Structure prediction request, 398 residues.
Amino acid sequence: MLPVELLLQIFEHLHDDRPTLLNLLLVSHHFAQLSESILYADVTLHPARICRSRPRRTVLACFAESLSGPTSSVSPSPRRRGPMVKHLFIDGSDIPSIAQSEYSQLDLILTRLPHLQSFHFTHLANAVRWSPFATSRITAPPFQLARLIFNAAIHPSYAPKMVHGFLASQTRLEHLEIGSIIEEALGSANRDGATASADTELPPPIAPSSLRILETSALGYFLDAGKTSNLTHLKLSSSASPLDMMLINSASAPRSPLANLRVLSTSQTPHLPSSESGGSPSATAATLLPNLEYWELRSEWVDLAAFLQEPCVRRFLVSLPRLKALRFSADVAVHSREGVAQTFESVLGLEFIEVRLGRKREVIIRYYRGEEKPRRVQWRRGEGAEWCQTWEHDASAT
Prediction:
């Protein structure tokens, strides 16, 4: 018999071959343990869907039972399945609402996943009346997440529980995509505070200092918490007004709270004051974003050359001392290379400009400095998540 370490490495190559892993469950108790450790590592559950094996139960209910049900003669104990789960994705994108009974099942599941590293929750319809560990019967989370994506609108009464309860307890969090939940929590706290007594103190801003990747519409919240110094990737999911204020006022700051930022994704061009308004735009942005290497712009433009000639855009591009790449994630038309060539001349360190062609949205090309023809690009990750990847290694250009 090969050592367990070697067998596990072999089984890892079957990560995407679920039929083979299921067959290995029947070989022996030893093989069943190794197979389940891979089968249960990544779990995707759809609320409200009916379990095939038990037509009267939902998928969430069946999975909860699998973590605590009777022991099979072949499979490992159900109590050992929970610790195997490393990544959990709750996909409610295709249903209008999620029943409260489903949230109860999800709470039950979460309490049995002590080694969970990544939690992704998606619901694109009405605001959800739930947040992790907001129920009274759950006192504390049993895991320390490294990645949390909460892609859903949340009811204002639950937002504070999410921010000041669950989020505050995740001290090892490195990757956070939380959208407008923090804004909703702050708004709820302000409304409650307006009617509270003068002696009542609002909860202080909470954010783990381990954060490296952040998507939010409430940048000011994290700045107030003073936990942005380690950020390397930032996506602003709404306007860039907090960043604009930092750009305008950063010249007098001793050290930028975004000094380590390497990737920035915005829906509009950050505003820099013109030279006529006083101060040096180059010095201002260089003080705030001294190490920014990659900028993604998500707004659509009819013509790339016209965009690159916009004064606000040129001021921002020229002001970034380490900028290597500019990326458009929305449709862009390229009528001539004139604007591209002028941008390379203005931004000396720029290595490539990446655009998504307007007529064929699936086509992404890069214009590299010194090359006549653009290269077609294939990203290795899912669409929309390119901003938080490694731009050099997670995309291939041919």
